[in-house]
Specification:
Elements: E1 7-11, E2 17-20, H1 22-30, H2 38-41, H3 53-67, E3 72-77, E4 83-93, E5 99-110, E6 123-131, E7 137-140, E8 143-145, H4 147-154, E9 162-168, H5 171-186
Parallel strand pairs: 6-9
Antiparallel strand pairs: 1-2, 1-5, 3-4, 4-5, 7-8
Helix pairs in contact: 3-5
């Protein structure tokens, strides 16, 4: 896996995606996510790509903070089948209602190939929830494990096809955001 230039996308005042850069498209092609290339996402609302309700509301709150003029920066995981990737994201406004998201790779840690993260895998209707920030997998009520541990604990590959993936947010990642949002409201 090669080093990747920052992935950039922008949304307008209605939260419609109006721009994605070439790094976005390269990533989509490289990992088989053809449904995410520019022609498939530009003109669609950001929340079309956030299926989990708590995460969708969190992004709405983040966008409110940014549109008030405060840039938001955070780290998150964006794993690929052969590596854990720690990323940083900066979200800022251009002052004209548009918001730009810039994601850059901070660190890449190779690991054994994880079929669950390959977009072209055949998936069952059952869904696993993966935290969109830390990439842990929900294995039970309030229990989140690293992907490799979750695969073992749930016996994911003992049945075929593999469960599908839905992204959400675990409690450990959610709490700091709520604290930030609440503190921004009181300032």
């Amino acid at each position: 896996m090669r080093t990747q230039e920052p992935v950039v996308y922008r949304v307008n005042f209605s939260d419609e995606i109006i721009f994605v850069n070439e790094a976005w498209n390269r990533f989509a092609f490289e990992y088989g996510n053809l449904h995410l290339v520019d022609a498939q996402v530009v003109g669609r609302r950001l929340d079309d790509f956030i299926s989990e309700p708590v995460t969708r509301e969190l992004y709405k709150e983040i966008l409110k903070i940014v549109r008030r003029g405060q840039a938001v920066e955070f780290q998150f995981r964006c794993d690929v089948p052969e590596a854990r990737r720690l990323m940083s994201m900066t979200i800022e406004t251009n002052g004209e209602g548009e918001v730009e998201f810039t994601s850059s790779v901070i660190n890449v840690e190779p690991r054994p190939y994880q079929r669950l993260l390959w977009a072209k895998s055949a998936y069952a209707a059952d869904l696993l929830t993966i935290c969109g920030w830390c990439r842990k997998v929900k294995v039970g009520r309030g229990v989140w494990l690293e992907l490799e541990d979750a695969v073992k604990a749930l016996g994911i590959f003992e049945a075929d096809p593999t469960p599908g993936v839905s992204f959400g947010i675990c409690y450990d990642c959610y709490v700091p955001w709520i604290e930030k949002i609440e503190s921004d409201k009181t300032e």
